[in-house]
Specification:
alpha/beta; two-stranded antiparallel sheet; Rossmann fold; 5 strands; single chain; about 170 residues; 8 helices
Length: about 170
């Protein structure tokens, strides 16, 4: 057998597949976030790595294929979400797949949404007893009075949008 990847953890979550039948996998990649190209490149790698003797792979791009994904839902055994940022890691796609009854890998709607909100995630991690780096949330009134925010922090700092993925929108000050 070739050294092709098998998604054993995904396979365990799939609908009951008759022995000898291929798992019909929806590879969801692309989307509308600023990380679209990273997602598409990752999907290409996943497609190449999957064992084609075990998986029938169909690719769906949420930017253009949501209606097709919904129409195909009854014929999909499992989805592999390879989206980044908004509409991919924030619980949106997870919720859509839940509504369609399609199992998928990774966190569900709530976990994804909470983890995508950096402030809320840090609050929850801290309450759970985890060590987190100090942080300060800019408030709307800080735009009118930047000195208010500067009085609460010391430079240098990393500035990051609350709900962006990866390093999008990040700056140093």
């Amino acid at each position: 057998m070739e050294n092709k990847a098998e998604l054993s953890s995904l396979s365990a979550q799939t609908k009951r597949i008759p022995s000898g039948c291929k798992i019909r996998l929806a590879l969801i990649a692309g989307g509308k976030s600023g990380e679209r190209e990273v997602s598409l490149a990752g999907a290409k790698g996943v497609e190449q790595a999957l064992n084609r003797e075990k998986y029938e792979v169909r690719r769906y791009d949420p930017a253009t294929d949501l209606a097709q994904l919904a129409a195909d839902a009854p014929t999909i055994d499992v989805a592999f979400i390879l989206l980044h940022g908004l509409f991919g890691e924030d619980g949106t796609m997870q919720g859509f797949l839940d509504l369609l009854g399609i199992p998928y890998q990774g966190a569900g709607v709530l976990g994804s949404a909470l983890a995508m909100d950096k402030n809320l995630a840090k609050v929850l991690y801290k309450q759970a007893g985890l060590t987190v780096a100090p942080w300060e949330m800019a408030q709307p009134e800080d735009q009118q009075n930047p000195g208010r925010l500067l009085s609460r922090i010391s430079l240098p700092v990393v500035i990051k949008p609350i709900r962006q993925g990866s390093s999008l929108g990040m700056s140093l000050a």
